Amino acid sequence: MARINPLNPSLTLVGEKGPPLERVLSSSGRIRILTLLSGIEELHLTEIAKRTEQSYSAAERHLDDLSKAGIVEERDYGRVRMFKLNLTNDHAKLLHDLILKWNQNQELGPVQAQA
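The structure assignment produced for this chain is given below.
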C-alpha cells in the first residue's frame, strides 16, 4: 500500500511508482499549472505563477511536487527555471490528453458537445 512520505508530504510516495491521482489533482493551483502547461510547450516559473494567479512560492512548491512525481520536467538556464509537461511519463500524457479534450469540449458549448 502506498503511503505519503511523512517527512515530505508532497507528491513523493513511499513504495509506489507514481503518485495517486487525488494527490496530483488535490490542489486547484496544480490543476491550473497542468492546464497552462498542456497548452504551452515550456514556460519559466515567474510566468507560470503570473498566468495561474498564484504567488511565486506557491507555484514553485506545486512545480517542485509535480517535478518530483515525474509529471513535469525542469530545466535550469542559469537562474531561470523552465518547466514543461513530461510527455514521456504515461500519467502526464494522460493528464495532458484529458485537459486538452476537456477544454475542447468546453469551447464547443453544450449543444455542439452533445452531437
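Interim note for the steering committee: The helical segments are 21-24, 28-39, 45-51, 56-68, 90-114. The first helix runs from residue 21 to 24.
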